Automatic annotation (TrEMBL), chains A, B:
<dbReference type="GO" id="GO:0009063">
    <property type="term" value="P:amino acid catabolic process"/>
</dbReference>
<dbReference type="InterPro" id="IPR036188">
    <property type="entry name" value="FAD/NAD-bd_sf"/>
</dbReference>
<keyword id="KW-0732">Signal</keyword>
<dbReference type="GO" id="GO:0001716">
    <property type="term" value="F:L-amino-acid oxidase activity"/>
</dbReference>
<dbReference type="InterPro" id="IPR002937">
    <property type="entry name" value="Amino_oxidase"/>
</dbReference>
<dbReference type="Pfam" id="PF01593">
    <property type="entry name" value="Amino_oxidase"/>
</dbReference>
<feature type="signal peptide">
    <location>
        <begin position="1"/>
        <end position="19"/>
    </location>
</feature>
<protein>
    <submittedName>
        <fullName>Amine oxidase</fullName>
    </submittedName>
</protein>
<feature type="domain" description="Amine oxidase">
    <location>
        <begin position="55"/>
        <end position="508"/>
    </location>
</feature>
<dbReference type="InterPro" id="IPR050281">
    <property type="entry name" value="Flavin_monoamine_oxidase"/>
</dbReference>
């Protein structure tokens, strides 16, 4: 369409280009109107008791209050935010076995011990915009970060830049496929011309020689960098394909390609706790900290919640409805009036054991010495990952995520004492960054499965559970609704908690309106 | 090595972990000590005339002054920075044919019309650190940005998210290769076990079915996003392999994988001009703006430069040495005493024609509607690329790089009037972002090959030129040294200019010392 035609169409659409575009189906993807929840306010106030002041609970209270509900929030921890947990100077944590630690990080430093990353399609961003919480890039993939694998054959115990392995693997893959196509080894439904185009692209992408061999590439990096004048740089030979196969790096690459992990990712400026704080600033209802729920009871007209107050005294509160965001691992042990199928469902969902560690260093050697600005190094040692900060580059000190592990590795790690954890993290991390030992100042170690009001990282459904128990968990049980990341298709992501709360708020509000 | 052993080694290495590590060869990549140029200062002051106040010239003056040289800098333009050019409110530019424009961008908005991106291995970062210029992430790759191709078969004239094409292509590639391996169609030097591992990984990475077919993937995105409760999202069928081949997207992917383009990339907070400003703040020598060089002459003991002053009067200045950073395209027309081989070399290097455009919009629709935070959309239309800003997310307005094209496309674009350029950019860009027409406020259009003191984007050497004329250009011609991106293996990158200046400063200083 010509611009002139377009402009006349715009005129015909009451001056709205956007309306004109929609009429023309010019937007191949649906344009996102504001994702603000637009629900009908209520006339007669109702009281909703929200269990848990993580982002699921906070979002529910925030949205309900917009509609005229009165909310009361009970939180077992001494802080808001749940798994949106930013560890700062003096942050304390006590684990189920009584093991306690207190952060000694510098006052201006912090790390997100739980949720951090936000994908571009997540509704989390809409709340950041609505609440005025600034966001910035989170460098999720860094080709200059390292792989370090033990016991994987020839390439064991070496620091290898991610780009080296990736480019070599790409090169070999393209070499093999290009040759197969050229030798007519494949039963391809492609024209001869398309086959030639494909081979040409494989050659370009994989840096293959004219006779289709991969012999290394400038893209895998240099042993001597290029420079000025007559210095074109020196490249090394590639690794063997068999060595790369034995390297077994599959999980690492997959961590870059899932829909929720794909770049560009974002983070909240100043720490993930800024989101929960922004919610709290808007919430009028009382948030009671250190108030663990003891019983969840149904009444003839609503709910009654028994909890302990800060003086460890049993208190009781009644409301018309309850939104319960307590993790299932914790909820299953709380005496309740849930129906028998609901109780069974609550008990049946396994949670991810996972640990995250923050390490404060005197100097940002990963930037100064290793030239790594954000991103993740991967290892098959217990620590699994090292995250480099995407902010405050070249400032004096910094905090690395020194470990982020899962399942058996996290279990093993969580069973260590704080001192043993520190030793392990420094010993394994120093294989990748020998500077660790000289520059280390202090650490904070968070095994989520050992925190009494979390008891795990996130819900782990398999396909079968999604079909059987998951629908049950999504049914309100009389006046009680469950919400949280575990009631969404984004387990472990902030957006899952928010989507779930929005869904439950809409469901509850519809019910209230239908009752008149 | 055990930590205890390591610590005793550290003790033995005079307490320096770092020395110990180096002794042990624990650092598989050379640790980067400070890249500060450490050269021997001179006793008898010498005068160096620096031609050009781009970063090459500024860096040369900065480094020379550290050593005791007296520098005088002549700049033809009315601003410093050269191709590190940040267009702000009221920025003016005049092209060789007299076409003039003045920016009407808002006061707090800007765009980098030339160099922007910094790779992690670039010495540019060392200068940012040394000069206290803050850096931040530059989102170079965004899987949610678009491809939009015209005349490429079935997928023409569609907005396609990058992830859709990439994941489909990966899937088909892996399907074909996995099948070829399973059918023993390839003459592989791999054990049976390694072949199985390879197939398993290809399957995982490419999201192949158990029988090794690619049938689409959640990683390519959803037509209905997953959400809370019972909404797992809806995925669409993949594109045909033949359609993808005809799509011809090769260049785009290659733009993500070269060593200098690989993520993580960085940018300077507040605009690339902050780097040149930081140099200027440290330089004591006089920088004369609007002082185009008219003649470059040799004297018996040094150099004599004739230039026009702001009143268009011919002035002459003499010095012991000259560092000339003038682009070869401009230099070749300046009368000079260069040797005949040097003159020939200067005249023989082609430069890239390239244009960049900044477009100010009332609203950041790419973030609000399209959920794109940084990164680049690609098209085979004239505009070639759209860059989304990696900073100030969700602020009210924003500037996109609305075109960044090369060669014939840039030539064509540069030959248009400002009004025609605007029309072209809006018309082509609105194919990808129909919001353009409603939200556009103002633009600024920079064809580098038409700016009188640039006459091109960067030097374009082929392999042959690197062998023949390039060494000649790197030889000092009596007391005159050439420097700039064109005297490096990083053509078009800031780091090339800096590396070249550092090299020439070291070379010149060594000569001065050797002369006693």
């Amino acid at each position: 369409m010509k611009r002139r035609d377009f402009l006349s169409l715009v005129a015909a659409s009451a001056g709205s280009t956007y309306a004109a575009m929609i009429a023309l189906d010019l937007l191949s993807q649906p344009a996102k109107a504001s994702k603000k929840l637009e629900l009908k306010p209520i006339n007669q106030p109702k009281t909703v008791i929200v269990l848990g002041a993580g982002v699921a609970g906070l979002c529910a209270a925030y949205e309900l209050e917009k509609l005229g509900y009165h909310c009361v929030i009970l939180e077992a921890n001494n802080r808001i935010g749940g798994r949106c947990f930013t560890v700062r100077n003096t942050t304390k944590s006590t684990e189920i076995d009584g093991q306690t630690q207190q952060s000694t990080f510098d006052e201006d430093l912090y790390f997100n011990a739980g949720a951090t990353r936000i994908a571009q399609h997540h509704v989390t961003l809409d709340y950041c915009q609505e609440l005025g919480v600034p966001i910035e890039p989170f460098n999720h993939v860094n080709e200059a970060a390292y792989y370090y694998q033990v016991d994987v054959g020839k390439l064991s115990n070496k620091k290898i830049r991610i780009r080296e392995i990736k480019q070599d693997f790409l090169g070999y893959k393209n070499e093999l496929l290009a040759k197969a196509i050229n030798q007519d080894a494949l039963d391809l439904e492609l024209t001869k011309e398309d086959q030639e185009k494909l081979v040409t692209f494989l050659q370009l992408e994989g840096n293959l020689s004219p006779d289709l061999f991969y012999k290394g590439s400038r893209n895998r990096g240099y042993s001597t960098l290029p420079g000025a004048s007559l210095n074109p740089g020196v490249i090394e030979s590639p690794f063997d394909l068999s060595a790369i196969i034995q390297y077994g790096f599959s999980w690492y690459i997959l961590n870059e390609t899932t829909f929720n992990h794909q770049i560009s990712l974002l983070q909240i400026v100043g720490g993930i706790d800024q989101l929960s704080k922004a919610f709290v600033n808007k919430i009028k209802g009382k948030i009671s900290l250190e108030s663990p729920v003891q019983e969840i009871r149904k009444t003839t007209t609503g709910v009654k919640i028994i909890y302990l107050d800060k003086q460890q005294k049993r208190q009781s509160i009644t409301g018309d409805y309850c939104i319960c965001t307590i993790p299932l691992t914790v909820l299953k042990s709380i005496p309740s009036d849930f129906s028998q199928p609901m109780k069974q469902a609550i008990s049946s969902i396994p949670y991810m054991a996972t640990s995250k560690v923050g390490l404060q260093f005197k100097r940002r050697f990963w930037e100064e010495d290793d030239r790594i600005f954000g991103g993740i190094s991967y290892t098959n040692q217990n620590i699994t990952q090292i995250f480099y900060p995407s902010d405050h580059f070249f400032s004096q000190k910094g905090i690395l995520v020194g470990a982020y592990n899962y399942e058996e590795k996290a279990q093993y790690f969580g069973n260590l004492s704080i001192q043993e954890r520190e030793k392990l993290v420094l010993q394994q991390g120093s294989k990748i960054h020998p500077q660790y030992l000289e520059e280390f100042e202090s650490g904070f170690y968070v095994p989520w499965h050992k925190l009494p009001y979390n008891l795990g990282g996130w819900a782990m459904y398999n396909t079968d559970m999604r079909k059987t128990v998951y629908p049950q968990l999504n049914q309100p049980d009389d006046h009680i609704y469950l919400a949280g990341e575990h009631l969404s298709y984004y387990p472990g992501w902030i957006t899952g908690s928010l989507e779930s709360s929005r869904h439950v708020v809409a469901q509850l509000n519809e019910r209230v309106h239908s009752l008149g």
